Amino acid sequence: MLDFTEASLKKVLTRYNVALEKAMTPEDAAEELYPKDELIYPIAKAIFEGEEDDVVEGLQAAMDAGKDPIALIDDALMVGMGVVTKLYDEGVIFLPNVMMSADAMLNGIEYCKENSETAPVTKGTVVCHVAEGDVHDIGKNIVTALLRANGYDVVDLGRDVPVDEVVNAVVANKPLMVTGTALMTTTMYAFKEVNDKLLEKGIQIPFACGGGAVNQDFVSQYALGVYGEEAADAPKIADAIIAGTKDIAALRNKFHKH
Question: Which comes out higher in pLDDT, residue 98 or 171?
């Protein structure tokens, strides 16, 4: 009968180059990413945990210590959401976690705004909608949450949005891009109508589309279309536009699979 002690087992594993690594939980992974500042750390952690009350408590403590409320949006709330986004991109956490964190962050932003005499500077405006005839809005809700979490103003038109309403919202709000989601193949053709009516009005902004029914080949058929395979692509596309990549072909080259 073989009797391995912990020491002898370790020797065997070491001999055969088998690494003994502690399994890392999402909490462990997040802990390694949190900022070290004692005032910012609890806020970032509360964002990751989706604890709205703890976010407000941390913000108030930071303000009491002299931190500017509006500066805390970038220096604490966005930092905490950055941890969430990174771990989501790496598959460590999942969409329900992101939604909880986004809600906590948005609540924190409102608290900061209420306690400041100046308004925060946003990156820009994005119009979001679910295609006409489609009532499935989970994907759109995730897109809007992630965009807001990354510092964008979102005009959320909701679900089953008529084509003309989308176009009118773009005209009225002058966004840097518009997004559309569709779960059903019978509804995704509304995107082509939105595209054509925007072009008729001389509007040539990126139209980022995705959803269960949508694929890259379909989106590539219309002039303004940029395909987003995942909801997390929306803020990445918006960031690319802000950074200067506004040409549709350039955005497709960056985000489409070849």
Answer: 171
